[in-house]
C-alpha cells in the first residue's frame, strides 16, 4: 500500500497573526482606528518614528509615546517588480510626510502606477509579507483615501 498520504504542512488555524513590530503600530482592541506610535523625547521634545534607543539631539533615553496622524502626503513612490522573498510582486513603497514633520517609509496598498506624489494617503493595516511558515506578517501600510 503506497497511497498513504503525508499530512500537508499547513499553518495552524489558531496561529497568531504576526505583527512586524509592536512598537511601531497600535491596533486598538476597541475597534478604533489603528495608529503609528511616535516617540517624543522627554528631555528635548524631539519626535521620532520609529523609536530610537537614544535621542540624537540630547542623548535622552526617556520617551513618551505619541499617536501619529493617520493621514499624510505622499512624498515619493516607487513600484517594485523584483522583490524580497516572501513578498508578492509587484508591490509599492513610498515615503509619506506626516503633519508632525516625520517622513515615514511604508508599503502602499493598491495597484502599481496608481499613486502620484503629493497625493493624500491614509494609514491602514495589512499583510506586508509572508513568513517562512506561510503566515502573514501584518503591519502598517498606507492606502488611498476612502471616498466619504
Ligand atoms: Zn532629546
| Biggest sheet architecture | 5 strands, mixed, barrel
Number of helices: 0
Bound molecules: zinc ion
Calculate Rg over CA atoms. 19 Å
* Main sheet: strand order: 6-7-8-10-9
SSE class:
mainly beta
Overall pLDDT, averaged?
88
What ranges have pLDDT less than 50 throughout 5 or more consecutive residues? none
Shape call: globular
Percent strand:
35-45%
Number of strands: 10
Helix content: under 10%
Q: What string, H for helix and E for strand, traces the elements in order?
A: EEEEEEEEEE
Give the end-to-end Cα distance, rounded to a whole number of Å: 62 Å
Structural commentary:
0% of the residues lie in helices and 43% in strands. It has no helices and 10 strands. It has strands spanning 18-19, 25-26, 35-41, 47-48, 63-67, 71-80, 91-98, 102-108, 120-130, 136-144. The model has no long low-confidence stretch (mean pLDDT 88). The site of zinc ion has 8 residues, from loops.
Task: Provide tags for this entry.
single chain; 148 residues; mainly beta; five-stranded mixed beta barrel; 10 strands; 43% strand; globular; binds zinc ion
Question: What topology emerges from the helices and strands here?
Answer:
Layout: E1 18-19, E2 25-26, E3 35-41, E4 47-48, E5 63-67, E6 71-80, E7 91-98, E8 102-108, E9 120-130, E10 136-144
Parallel strand pairs: 1-10, 8-10
Antiparallel strand pairs: 2-3, 3-4, 3-5, 6-7, 6-9, 7-8, 9-10
This protein binds zinc ion.
